Structure formats: C-alpha cells, structure tokens
Amino acid sequence: MASISVRSVRRLSLYRRFLQESQAAGKRHLFSHDIAATTGASPAQVRRDLMEVSGHGSPRQGYNVAELIDALSRFLDAGTPQPVILVGLGNLGRAVLAYFAGRHPKLRITLTFDIDPAKTGRLLNGCPCHCADKIPELCPAHGITMAILTVPAAEAQPVADRLVSAGIRGIINFAPVTLRVPPGVFVDTMDFACSLETVAFFLRD
Amino acid sequence: MASISVRSVRRLSLYRRFLQESQAAGKRHLFSHDIAATTGASPAQVRRDLMEVSGHGSPRQGYNVAELIDALSRFLDAGTPQPVILVGLGNLGRAVLAYFAGRHPKLRITLTFDIDPAKTGRLLNGCPCHCADKIPELCPAHGITMAILTVPAAEAQPVADRLVSAGIRGIINFAPVTLRVPPGVFVDTMDFACSLETVAFFLRD
DNA sequence: GCCTGTGAAGCTATTCACAGCT
DNA sequence: AGCTGTGAATAGCTTCACAGGC
Prior knowledge:
Low-confidence stretches of chain A: none
Order of helices and strands of chain A: HEHHEHEHEEEHEHEEH
Strand content of chain A: 15-25%
Oligomer: homodimer
Radius of gyration of chain A: 19 Å
C-alpha cells in the first residue's frame, strides 16, 4: 500500500461521517462536489482521496453511498473493535467520555483511570474507573493501544510516559502540552487554547 | 505584512506558551533547538517562523526569553483584550469554560449562552449565562467577534448561522460537523472523533 | 565553534485539465 | 452533457546549507 498522508486519512474519516449522515437522510448517491461542499474540501481533492480506497464512482450518478461507506470502513477500520482508555476524569474527561459513549462501533472507551480515590471503583457511562496505578497492569492485559488523555497539563507528560511503557501507541491529548514520545507512538493534541489564539490572530486585519 | 500561514501562527502560539513556561522555570535564554525539541518542530522551522516576528536572537546565547515573549505577544495579540462567548453549557461547554477561566490575559470568555432555562440567569465560573435568544442583541452590544461552540451536533450549524449574523467572525467548533460559513469567517473544528479514527488508522501497520 | 537568519532546494499537498465513460 | 479517475502542473511548506556574527 502506498503510504497515505495523515491529512488524507483525516478527510476520509470526515467523508465517511458525512456519508453516514446522508445515508440516514435517505441519500443513495452523491457526487464528489456534494461531499466536497459539506466537508470543506475541493471536489478534486475528494476524488483524489477516494482513489486510495478504490471505491469506484460512476460518472452517471456519482458515488453509491452505501458502497462507499463500506469501502471507507474497510480502509479505515481495523478488523476487530479497538478498545480505548481514558485517563483523567475531570470535567473534560467526563465530557469526552459521555460524548463517545456508544457512538462508535469500532472504537470504544472500555476503561477509565484517575488518581482520585473518590472516582475510582465506580462506573461512569457504564465504564469502570480504576486507579491510575493499574495502568501498567490493565492495559497490556486488555490489549489496549490507544488512550485519551484528559489530565491537567502538569500531569500530561508523566502520564504519557507511563502509557507508552504500558504499550499505548496512540494518544489523543487534551492537555495544552506538546508530548514527547518515542518514534512509533502517534499523538494528536487537541490544543484549544492554541486554536483560539490562532483564530484571534486572523480576525485582526 | 507578508501573509503568514495558519500553521506558522499556530506554531508561534505554541512557542510562546513554551517560552512562558521556561521563563517561569527561570530560563533566560533558549536556542532554536530547545524550542524545537519541546514543541515538535525542527530548529530550522523555529528560526523561519521567528523571522516573521523579527525578535532577534544572538548566536552566542540564542534567544532572550523575555524579549521573545514580548515580540511574540506583539505579533499574536491584538492591542486590547478580546471577549469571547461560549455557546452550549453541557458537560463539554462547562469543561471548556473551567479550562479557560482566568487563564489568558487577552482572550476571556465574558458571556455564555444556552437554551436550557435551568442554566440561564446564573453565573458559571464567574461568567453570566444568557438565553441563546439574546445572542443577536448581546454580541454586537459587547463587540464580540469570537465564539466557542459546544452545542450538540444537530444544533451546530443553525447556531453558527446565528452567530455569524450576530457579527461573530471566528468560531472554535467542538461539534463533529463541518460548519458552512461565509468567506471571512474563520472556523477551527476540534473534531476528536476524527482524530481518534485517524490515530487508530496509523496504529495498524 | 556553534549559533542565527535566510536564499535556494526539495518535498508534499492541492488543483488543473482532460481522457474516458455512461 | 457532466461526471469520474488521474497524469501533469502549481502552490505551499519544510529542510538544507551556508554566510555572517559572537
């Protein structure tokens, strides 16, 4: 497989979500410019991205929605569902947990961790919360490779280090910190302070 | 001013935050490779980005931390503090509100909005919550141009439309939806479902 | 010696433009 | 006629490499 860029994969994920919404709304066929319009890409880019998943469209009617969703899912999803952990059950952690609850068939938060004894041992959104000390034991035991990190900024790097040594190789980081991780570990930081500053900058003309 | 890319501005914002932390830790001088190492950029990129703000470093000691923070702030910040509104006080909205409370000298959430009467009329983190109906009245009255959108996915586009007609020109969107906005309005979507799928993809080899 | 600042090169991503199809 | 799929062209971003300075 020719190596595909992070940005293309991200767009493919976006296209799939839009296609699923369209399907729910009763659409059977869509053109590249339809997908482009509501996902913010150009029609040419949609077609080029879709080359990677080789879901063929017809010139007459465009893309068959159901077929394309299947092709995208085969491309994007692993065969088996992937368990994900969430570390840090503050406001943000609970919000993210609630957001993901039961939403994605292939990516489910199956365990959560916190250091606060008041939170451990309970269920939140049907999901057990363990003491963060258990990370090195439970992650390998459950074959978990992905984590969502919603701990305070000061904790983020040390917790990330522990996650990595527990076998985690993908992290969605909500702390306003650039994590240092070894090669082969993927991190995506949701840095909204940075986003806000960036948007603010471009409002000044 | 030569036009600068969104990505450069984002990195500059990241550099500044790192410099502020370094300053708090007692650092007076830093080299481009120090900044690069902890922000995930290359040293050459740091230097190139910093060309834009023309904060001059010396070959002997690198960059003077205090001077560079000043230069970055002059570049990134508007002269006066910028008020920001937050719309949608669910779990996520409250988490984001708590996160920003008092954190940024130039960007402050000054008003929040929700449609739930149980939430309106109260203070959250010292910030008054109004009924969403008041957006068209209050935003222009307070000269607000930026919004953080933490409403459910189905509400995001209609609310965004109302924000735009109330004069909002920058939106940080947390809903898993690509917003359609007129030219001149900046949107940054924090799409963590998408991020998680993308990270998951690259873990499969 | 080892840094910064920067032109130039190299690389990646996006768009163009058109052949081929229905 | 109007779409898809795709090679070619363009635009944009990142790194190289080195002159200049301490």
